[in-house]
Write a structure and sequence with these properties.
This is Formamidopyrimidine-DNA glycosylase. The chain is of the alpha+beta class. It has helices at residues 4-18, 39-46, 145-153, 159-164, 174-184, 197-216, and strands at 23-28, 34-36, 51-57, 60-65, 69-74, 79-85, 94-100, 104-110, 116-121, 257-261, 264-268. The strands form 3 sheets. It has a 5-stranded mixed sheet, covered by helices on one side. A 4-stranded antiparallel sheet has the order 1-7-8-6, covered by helices on one side. A two-stranded antiparallel ribbon has the order 10-11. The model has no long low-confidence stretch (mean pLDDT 95). It binds a DNA duplex through residues 1-3, 6, 59, 74-79, 93, 111-116, 129-130, 155-158, 161, 164, 166, 173-176, 219-225, 242, 262-265.
Length: 274
DNA sequence: CGGTAGACTTGTAAGG
DNA sequence: CGTATACAAGTCTACC
């Protein structure tokens, strides 16, 4: 699913529609998406609560609710979260619906049903696996070249795999990992500790550029992604390598190749990336 | 600790 | 046109 730019776009879209609104009813059509507590207990805990803030950490969305509790949503591969007019939703993949004390509802739709929902007291957020162990995000102050150098120095694993590790860098996913390596001119299966200082500099710059452009373009709709208004993003028109197997590299014209790296599809230009 | 394969789940595209 | 296939924006667990 959505990586950092997509989740952030959704957050920005939804914020003004849901902050300061009260949750007046909860429809849970697929209870197993609620990982904690039970679906019934989840409903009881969020009912009648006001939404104070909408935040994002990595690929997680956090609805800060009245009463020092937080509703945590991870969209995984195909989750969509959008605002709709009450009574005007037709979506065969709708899984959960939050009714607000406005004329709008917050709809969660998910074709592959891999998404995860939790509600936790704020002091127990550490129980949401992966949430508190996120590494620094691209474009953030602690995400520096020296940080990259430090985490890669002693690791022999493939650079592509490490870029996907959320504990090292928060928010990158398969599309932007490939795009960042393409922009930096680095072959995805290079051992991480083999990058020299110029390459580390180029990769750091490339990650920030790729994420920044994706944010400006309101995310990449390769297939399922939709923003908070159920609209497509625009960044799919600016991809260099992702999903472009057999097509020409925009830089050199060589044919883009697809391989499998650590179980994930990986796209690169054999001419530009070493 | 590091790294990888498999699992979860179901729709859609590509290809025969 | 149906599907005997392949692949998918992610992460968690088991295992070496």
């Amino acid at each position: 699913m959505p990586e950092l730019p997509e989740v952030e776009t959704i957050r920005r879209n939804l914020e003004s529609h849901i902050v300061d609104k009260q949750i007046t009813a909860v429809d849970i059509f697929l209870p197993r998406l609620v990982k904690w507590p039970s679906a019934d207990e989840f409903r009881a805990r969020v009912l009648k609560k006001k939404i104070n803030r909408l935040e994002r950490k990595g690929k997680y969305l956090l609805l800060r609710l009245q009463g020092d509790i937080t509703l945590i949503i991870h969209l995984r591969m195909t989750g969509q979260l959008y605002i709709a007019e009450a009574g005007h939703v037709t979506d065969r993949f709708e899984r959960i619906r939050l009714h607000l004390d406005s004329e709008e509802v917050l709809v969660y739709s998910d074709a592959r049903t891999l998404g995860t929902w939790y509600v936790m007291p704020d002091h127990e957020l550490g129980r949401v696996h992966g949430l508190e162990s996120l590494g620094p995000e691209p474009l953030s102050e602690p995400f520096t070249v020296s940080y990259l150098a430090a985490i890669f120095r002693s690791r022999t694993g493939k650079i592509k795999s490490l870029l996907l590790n959320q504990e090292l860098i928060g928010g990158l996913g398969n599309i932007y990992a490939d795009e960042s390596l393409a922009l930096a001119g680095i072959y995805p299966e290079r051992p991480a500790n083999s990058l020299n200082s110029d390459e580390l500099e180029a990769l750091h710059q490339a990650i920030n550029t790729v994420i920044s452009q994706a944010l400006q373009n309101a995310g990449t709709t390769f297939r399922d992604y939709r923003n908070g208004y159920r609209q497509e993003g625009h960044n799919q028109h600016h991809l260099r390598v992702y999903g472009r197997k057999g097509q020409a590299c925009p830089i050199c014209g060589s044919t883009i190749v697809r391989i499998e790296t650590a179980g994930r599809g990986t796209h690169y230009c054999p001419q530009c990336q070493h």
